[in-house]
Design brief:
By secondary structure, this protein is mainly alpha-helical. 73% of the residues lie in helices and 5% in strands. It folds into three domains: 42 residues; 65 residues, no CATH class; 258 residues, Type II secretion system (T2SS), domain F (Receptor-associated Protein), CATH 1.20.81. A hairpin with a 5-residue loop joins strand 1 and strand 2.
C-alpha cells in the first residue's frame, strides 16, 4: 500500500505533518479528516518531485505557449471531445519541442486511466502546483472547461503585465548602456589625448579638469578594479540570496524604495488578489488557496505574513480581519475582502481588487516612464556637458595667456 506524506492543520489551528498509508490520495485525505486534521498537502512518497507553485511557467515553455494550449484544451473540453482525443489533437498541433514532448507523456498517462490533474502533476517543471490544483478542482466540480478558460485568461493577462514591464525597462537600460559607453570612450580615448596639451602648458588647471584627468587615469590604469567588482558581485549576490534572512531584507527594501516601492506593492497586491480569487472561483478550498497564493508571492515579506493569515483562518478567523492586521494590505483590499465574505462572493471581490491594483500599477508605470525618459536624456546630456566643460575651460585659459 503506498505511503503519503502530508501537511495539515489540527483542530487548534497548529501545523502538523507526517505520513499515512492509503490506497489513493483521496483515501489518504479521508483518513486525515477522520483524525480531525485539515489536509493542505498530500504527496505520495516516491512519486513526482515537489511541484513548483508559480504562475510564471517559464522553465522552457513560454507563458504564451502554455496559455494557448490551455485555451485550446478548454475549447475541446467544452465541445464534449473526450479528454484522450483532445490531448491527441493538441499533440499533433504542437511543433516539435518541450511542450509537445510533455503533452505526449500526459496523453500516455491519461490512456492508462489517470485523471488530467494527476497526469499534469507528473510534469512539475511545466505545470505548477497552482495550475494542477485548479484543474483538479475543475474536475471535481464538473466545470473543467470553465476553469481552463479562466486559467487561460489569467495567463494571458500576466503575460501582458510582464510585457509592459519589459517594454518600460528597455529604454532606460538602453540609455544607461549608451551613456556609459560614451562616457567610457571619452575618459579612456579622448581625454588622454587632450591631457598632454594641458600638461605641456604647466598652467594651473581648473578643479573640474583635474578631477576629470584623475578619473581618466584611474580607468586607464585600474580598469580591472571596477570590472572585477562587477563580475564578483554576481556570485556574491546569488550566494547572499540563498539565505532566507537576506532575501527577506532585500524584499523589504524593495517595498521601501521611493516611487518604485509603491509600484512593486501594487503589482504584488494585484497578483495576490487575482490568484486567490481565481483559485477560489475554481473551487479550491480556502486553506489550500491561501497556501498556494502564499507560495506564488515572490516577495518574502508578504509570504511570511500570509503564513500567519493561514493560521488565523484555520482557527476560524475571517480573511479580512487577518489582512487588516498589517499595513501591507491597504484598506481598499481589506474592505473589498470583508464585503465579499459577508455577501458570499469573495472570489469576485478579490478579482475586482486585483484588476484595480493592476490598473493602478499600469498607470504609475506609465507616469514613471514618462518622467524617466526626459530625466535620462538630461542626465546623459549633463554628464557629457561636464566633460566638455572640463576640456574647454583650460583651452579658454590658454587662449587668454597667449593673448
Amino acid at each position: 500500500m503506498p505511503t503519503f506524506r502530508y501537511k495539515a492543520y489540527s483542530a487548534t489551528g497548529s501545523s502538523v505533518s507526517g505520513s499515512v498509508e492509503a490506497e489513493s490520495e483521496r483515501q489518504a485525505v479521508v483518513l486525515l479528516k477522520g483524525k480531525g486534521l485539515l489536509p493542505r498537502e498530500v504527496v505520495e512518497e516516491g512519486g513526482a518531485k515537489d511541484r513548483t507553485s508559480s504562475f510564471s511557467f517559464r522553465r522552457g515553455v513560454s507563458t504564451d505557449e502554455l496559455s494557448l494550449f490551455t485555451r485550446r484544451l478548454a475549447t475541446l473540453v467544452a465541445s464534449s471531445v473526450p479528454l484522450f482525443e483532445a490531448m491527441g489533437s493538441l499533440c499533433e498541433q504542437e511543433e516539435s519541442g518541450l511542450l509537445r514532448q510533455t503533452l505526449v507523456r500526459v496523453k500516455e498517462r491519461i490512456a492508462e486511466g489517470a485523471a488530467l490533474s494527476r497526469a499534469l502533476a507528473a510534469e512539475p517543471d511545466i505545470f505548477g502546483e497552482s495550475y494542477v490544483s485548479m484543474v483538479a478542482a475543475g474536475e471535481a466540480g464538473g466545470a473543467l472547461d470553465a476553469v481552463l478558460e479562466r486559467l487561460a485568461d489569467f495567463l494571458e493577462e500576466q503575460e501582458q503585465v510582464r510585457s509592459k514591464v519589459t517594454s518600460a525597462l528597455i529604454y532606460p537600460l538602453l540609455m544607461v548602456v549608451v551613456g556609459g559607453g560614451v562616457m567610457l570612450f571619452l575618459l579612456t580615448v579622448v581625454i588622454p589625448r587632450i591631457v598632454t596639451i594641458f600638461e605641456d602648458s604647466k598652467a594651473a588647471l581648473p578643479l573640474i579638469t583635474v578631477i576629470l584627468i584623475k578619473v581618466s587615469h584611474f580607468f586607464q590604469g585600474y580598469w580591472w578594479i571596477p570590472l572585477s567588482l562587477a563580475v564578483a558581485s554576481v556570485p556574491l549576490y546569488r550566494s547572499a540570496m540563498k539565505r532566507d534572512d537576506m532575501r527577506l531584507k532585500r524584499d523589504g527594501l524593495l517595498l521601501r524604495l521611493p516611487l518604485a516601492g509603491g509600484m512593486v506593492q501594487r503589482l504584488i497586491l494585484s497578483r495576490f488578489a487575482r490568484v486567490l480569487g481565481l483559485l477560489l472561483s475554481s473551487g479550491v478550498p480556502i486553506m489550500r488557496a491561501l497556501e498556494i497564493t502564499g507560495e506564488v508571492m515572490v516577495n518574502r515579506v508578504y509570504r511570511t505574513f500570509l503564513r500567519g493569515v493561514m493560521e488565523d483562518v484555520a482557527q476560524g478567523g475571517s480573511l479580512s480581519a487577518s489582512l487588516k492586521k498589517s499595513p501591507l494590505f491597504p484598506p481598499l483590499l481589506v474592505h473589498l475582502t470583508g464585503v465579499g465574505e459577508k455577501s458570499g462572493n469573495l472570489e469576485e471581490m478579490l478579482v475586482k481588487a486585483g484588476v484595480a491594483y493592476e490598473r493602478e500599477f499600469t498607470a504609475r508605470l506609465t507616469r514613471l516612464m514618462g518622467l524617466m525618459e526626459p530625466l535620462m536624456v538630461l542626465a546623459m546630456g549633463l554628464a557629457v556637458g561636464i566633460v566638455v566643460l572640463a576640456v574647454l575651460l583650460p583651452i579658454f585659459e590658454l587662449n587668454q595667456l597667449i593673448k
